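User: Show me a protein chain along with its predicted structure.
Assistant: Here is one chain, sequence first, then structure tokens.
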Amino acid sequence: MKSTKFVTSEYYHIFNRGVEKRQIFSDDTDTQRFLKSIAVFNTVNAVGSIYEYSFESKKRKTIKSKKLVEIICYCLNNNHYHLLLRQSINGGLGEFIRRLGIGYTSYFNIRNKRSGVLFQGRTKSAHIDSNEYLLHLSAYINLNHKIHPFGDRISKSSWEEYVEEGKTRDSTRICSKQIVLRQFKNCKEYKAFALEALDNIRQKKTMYGEMKKLLLD
């Protein structure tokens, strides 16, 4: 984990990709497992594994456990992921990312009959130091799968939670999205804001790509 001192109640962009840029999500089974890991490991109570957790699920439903972090939004792509998180307790964010990395790597290695590390080095992080940054980052993460060349082929994001409220099942909602949505009149207004922000991001990526090519030429 990157040696960042996370501050409770502050927001952070957390992201990482597969070692050697390898694929870390190959199908819906993988993305659903990662999302389940997010939900299961986000507790101050010790969790051995999702397998062990499943045997105690009924008991745990009756116990309200404090969360390590708040999930604001997420995007899982072919070879990388993005999370926007708020630390809920001291040390919570680091512990959450540690559990998530170990748990998903163990699952992935067993499923694919491999061994060794899955993610490229320490998890990366960036502190969100303004509300404007928070809003634009939410758009970037929610629509991140549309920025990359593989598009919607292998991806899962919290976009539907934000713009199609009522259409997603309660069991699939894991985001605390009101910090973002309460700043807009409704979901439709947020959708328009996010799509406009996406256009700006695409333009900047195109400009950067063209400049890089000129320098290389």
